[in-house]
Amino acid sequence: MPMVTQTQTLNNNIGFTHEDFAALLDQYDYHFSPGDIVAGTVFSMEQRGALIDIGAKTAAYIPVQELSINRVDDPKEVLQPNETREFFILTDENEDGQLTLSIRRIEYMRAWQRVRQLQEEDATVYSNVFATNRGGALVRVEGLRGFIPGSHISAKDTKEDLVGQDLPLKFLEVDEERNRLVLSHRRALVERKMNGLEVSQVVIGSVRGIKPYGAFIDIGGVSGLLHISEISHDHIDTPHSVFNVNDELKVMIIDLDAERGRISLSTKQLEPEPGDMLKNRDLVFEKAEEMAIKFREKLLAGETEAAKVDPAELEGISAEEEVIIENISSDDVSTVETNDTTGEEELIPTATE
Question: Which of 42, 45, 209, 260 lies deepest, with the highest CB count within 10 Å?
Fold first, then answer.
């Protein structure tokens, strides 16, 4: 009977040697590439990161700064020993054959996907102001850092006093490629106010500003534009000849544009006789509701159409006024600061830190 050594017996019981196992790994070696999302198990916790088993020859490493979209000081805040979850491959193998992983990148990808969906739904989101700068205020939405330009902040408090407050916000710009998330507090308030308004409704307001093309009227916390062409049937050279700041007056809503956050107003349509706004303003206000009913009847009969302001007529308005009439463009809020003194043109902070 031939002799069988202990090593031979062990090899027969195991089925293959360590060399066989290594060769098998080489044969079925998985090629991991940066950008891949893989499942991994926490192998070992370290002070500034963790080792993760993703099926590679060498355990991958995730540094503490890649553990979350939010600040993390200790890996134990996010990971638990033997926990299995998804990881993003951040970099290729180093000289030791070790890959670097990230959870933060996965969270950012999903956060951008979520805010794009919210923008498409024209959703109103609530977020806490955590800081301010010369240009506006900073908030977080789905973990991303968002910027509210100063002209899109509608509050009696100073910007500094807004820190810690939760604000309703609408999306102005969601641009993952440029890493920009811009929001509007004022537009959210205008939309909320618009829900209680309707065309042909008479409201009481006060003049908050006068420009060559019209007057801005505060109607309960939001502003509408009383264009010069809608002040009177008679010709007017300048609104300054008709109104003073803080004048109280009755106006009729002739157009509501929720998408642009625009409220268009008229006193012309309330004149019992052409020119009454210039000759007898009190009579116009006294007959306002009566004239509004006639205007509404004409609308229903299709005999008239609510006037809309031509954007070309508003050329040259300031950022503070622009937000009242129409959302400011991305160019208006992304200009790099040069010698600006208003702070509005400060470079928008990126959504990632």
Answer: 42
DSSP state string for 297-353:
HHHHHTS-------GGGGTT--HHHHHHHSPPPHHHHHPPPSS-SSSTTSPPPPS--
Q: Would 265 be classed as within a structural domain?
A: yes
Q: Which single residue is written with the structure tokens 């710009």?
A: 173
Would you say 261 and 186 are in contact if contact means Cβ atoms under 8 Å apart?
yes
Residue 352 domain-assigned?
A: no
Determine, yes or no, domain membership for 208: yes
Element containing residue 108 per DSSP (H, E): helix 104-120
DSSP 3-state assignment of 131?
strand
3 state SS for 49-88:
EEEEECCCCCCEEEEHHHCCCCCCCCHHHCCCCCCEEEEE
> Residue written as tokens 């979520």?
114
Neighbours of 259 (CB within 10 A): 10
pLDDT digits (tens, 9 = 90+) for 267-298: 999 999 999 999 999 999 999 999 999 998 88
Query: Each residue of 3-45: pLDDT tens digit?
Result: 434 444 444 555 556 566 555 555 555 678 899 999 999 999 9
CATH number at residue 252: 2.40.50.140
Tell whether 317 is covered by a domain.
Answer: no
Domain residues for the domain of 253 are 200-305
In this structure, the chain runs to a length of: 353
